[in-house]
Amino acid sequence: MKRLFVLLLPILLLTTCVQQIGVDLPDASEKLVVDGLISTLPGPYTVKLTKTAKYTTGSDGTNFLVPGATVRISDDAGTSEILQETSPGIYKTQAGGIQGQVGRRYTLSIETADGKKYQSQPELIKATPAIENIYYEFVEGSPGIEEGFYVYVDTRDPAATEDFYRWNWVHYEKIQYCFNETVPPSTTPTILTCCSDCWEIKRCNGCVNVASDRLTNGALISRQLVAVVPYNSRSKYFLYYEQHSLTREAFKFWQALEDQSKNVGGIFDKPPATVRGNIGNVTDAEEIVLGYFGASDIKANGIQIDRSTVAKNPSGPLPVVAPPSSGPPPPCYPCYESILRTPITPPYWVE
């Protein structure tokens, strides 16, 4: 048990007396955090396992990866696959391995290196309709309004079913230079071209964008905002976007996270609470497990946003100066696959 000592100064500073108060703070137990999804798009699929850190460790609440686990995805038809750990705490299915199908239920099973066993509730893949239209509009910035290109989709909700949706996006930008750093003892940056095609990746990290058909059942869901593209350049901006189907339980989970993300600390905000997902300890129902294992039908596509049509100047910095074109060509730098870059042509990419 840790003790935190708080120094209280009298409000009016009428005395120099300082009172010391000891406050008992319980140590927060570590919790397993699970982030995973299987879908109707071809794999590989990824499951990420981390654990929350105690605030007394000085880690500022960061999560720690959980290596050495046995992770399995199975369906209600008897198909299953054990995921391979490709890096600490990151588990992937094989290319061409298990793939989600509409109407099937999928379960995630985990056994950690210390022998603890966890399992998700079976998650049904529900069908999601096609996106009928995607379009964008430029909005100038003003107090409380972010400037940029607002990207909207239209989709027609089925009347016969109760439906829930989530939208996600990834931005890919083709780059020419893969290295731009100052290497001591030099004081000028070294700029190297990419040895192959290369794309930088910006994901919708932390974004929660969900909706239900409670008020639109059987009607057109119109002008659903998917993303706001910044106007920091006149170059084209490629956006890969997805529409996910959700179960009622998954919708409640993501909606709770969305509500918490909108809290600004006002007196009328809901108090923060632990958002429990669909995963539990097989032998200890009291253990709290964070995160969610989802199963979705996904409709995906891409769109190029032409940012050269706006009359005003963009807000971004000047472009990086290229190395001199005269003389022998400089060495190139590899485009390493990571969460920030890829040498693989993105889906739906157009030059």
UniProtKB/TrEMBL annotation:
<dbReference type="InterPro" id="IPR025345">
    <property type="entry name" value="DUF4249"/>
</dbReference>
<protein>
    <submittedName>
        <fullName>DUF4249 domain-containing protein</fullName>
    </submittedName>
</protein>
<feature type="signal peptide">
    <location>
        <begin position="1"/>
        <end position="21"/>
    </location>
</feature>
<keyword id="KW-0732">Signal</keyword>
<dbReference type="Pfam" id="PF14054">
    <property type="entry name" value="DUF4249"/>
</dbReference>
